[in-house]
Amino acid sequence: MQTLPKQQRFETLSYLPPLSDQQIAKQIQYILDKGYIPAVEFNENSDPTVFFWTLWKLPLFGARGTDEVLSEVRACRSEYSNCYVRVVGFDNIKQCQVLSFIVHKPR
Predict the structure, then answer these.
(1) Residue 73: left if φ>0, alpha if ψ -120 to 50, beta else—which one?
(2) Which of 12, 62, 74, 104 could lock 85 by a disulfide, CB 3.0 to 4.6 Å apart?
(3) Which residues pair with 96 in a beta bridge?
(4) Domains plus CATH for the chain?
């Protein structure tokens, strides 16, 4: 067993190489399958002490497929390429965010 090199980690899946759009789509499908509401957020820094991210548009309440959500991810990445972008899933029963993962890191 080997220890990972010391570096800043970001939320869920951060130990993996950057996700492709196809891999992001699979994670989004999981969100939709669970009945969670997907949303896209961005922020200039992802420091763990920063609890507030800016919401990209409104949560995608009526999203039926991954293409709708992935389209918003691409638009946010394009407009805010200097920011971290993440996808979050909200549980409307528990009324809280139940998962999130980074889909873009600025270079």
Answers:
(1) alpha
(2) 104
(3) 91
(4) 21-46+55-104 (3.30.190.10)
As a whole number of angstroms, the distance between CA 81 and CA 67 comes to 20
In the numeric block, the tokens 């200097």 are attached to: 82
Model pTM score:
0.84
Per-residue tokens: 62: 């009526």
pLDDT digits (tens, 9 = 90+) for 11-46: 666 667 788 999 999 999 999 999 999 999 999 987
The dihedrals phi and psi of 87, each to the nearest 5 degrees, come to -105, 135
- Residue pLDDT, tens place only, 57-74: 999 999 989 999 999 999
Closest CA to 77 of 56, 52, 101, 51: 56
Q: Is the CB of residue 103 less than 8 Å from the CB of residue 81? A: no
